[in-house]
Amino acid sequence: MKPSSRLAVIIVAIVGGSLLAFCAGIVFTLAVIMPARRETGQAPLGTFEPTVEASASQPIRPSPTKTLVEPRPTATYAIIILTPAPTAEPTPSSTLVQSPAPPASPTPRPGLPFYYVEGSRIEQDNCFSMYLKGLVIDANDVPLDGVTIRWERWQVSEFYVSGSDPTAPRGQWTFDYMPGDRHMPTDFVLQVVESEGNLKPLSDPLVIHYAGCSINGQITRIVFKRR
């Protein structure tokens, strides 16, 4: 017999023997054990119910019921930082500083027939030929001859009659500085008067601050006008 055939016979014998033993066990249980348990009043196998015996010292307590507790809301704390309010600084009030008023031009006195035309004169530096020159006109701006002009400077007075120089334009008058006076500051006073012998004023005095020939050694276009 081949080895493979032998192995197959052995396996069949083992399986057959196992099945035979299993079947014999079942038959023995049904035929012998089960009837014996019925006679003795024992419950058949498979219907056994466990019994719970209460202990005298430790009674059976019901299991505690779980109560669902709602979670409490977590307290929220707000942090408040108090910032001091800024102190308002007073706004500096502006102080009005009044500028000094310019010196007012002399107001022509009523009743005087002549007045100086404000802003008419022109001042220039001239240390070679120093002089004052002006003009007398009537109310219609026509040159006027025969009017006496008084010039006071360095405590000396001179006079000139307008139009007295036939080579000069009508209504013109002129004064020349003395050579030694050109660098000496002083106040010039010019005024229309009645005549050299009668110093009755016919106009308000015109004061010119002389600062030397390098500043206003030549002053021209000094106009006196009749009302």
Task: Give the helix/strand layout.
Elements: H1 3-39, E1 114-116, E2 122-124, E3 131-137, E4 148-153, E5 156-161, E6 172-176, E7 186-193, E8 206-210, H2 213-216, E9 218-226
Parallel strand pairs: 3-9
Antiparallel strand pairs: 1-9, 2-9, 3-6, 4-5, 4-7, 7-8
Describe the structure.
The chain is α+β, with helices and mostly antiparallel strands and 227 residues long. Among the domains are: 1-45, no CATH class; 114-226, Immunoglobulin-like (Sandwich). 18% of the residues lie in helices and 23% in strands. The chain contains 2 helices and 9 strands. The protein has helices at 3-39, 213-216, and strands spanning 114-116, 122-124, 131-137, 148-153, 156-161, 172-176, 186-193, 206-210, 218-226. Strands 1, 2, 3, 6 and 9 form a 5-stranded mixed sheet that branches. Strands 5-4-7-8 form a 4-stranded antiparallel sheet. A hairpin with a 2-residue loop joins strand 4 (148-153) and strand 5 (156-161). The longest helix is centred in the first third of the chain and has 37 residues, at 3-39. It is rod-shaped. Residues 94-105 have low confidence and may be disordered.
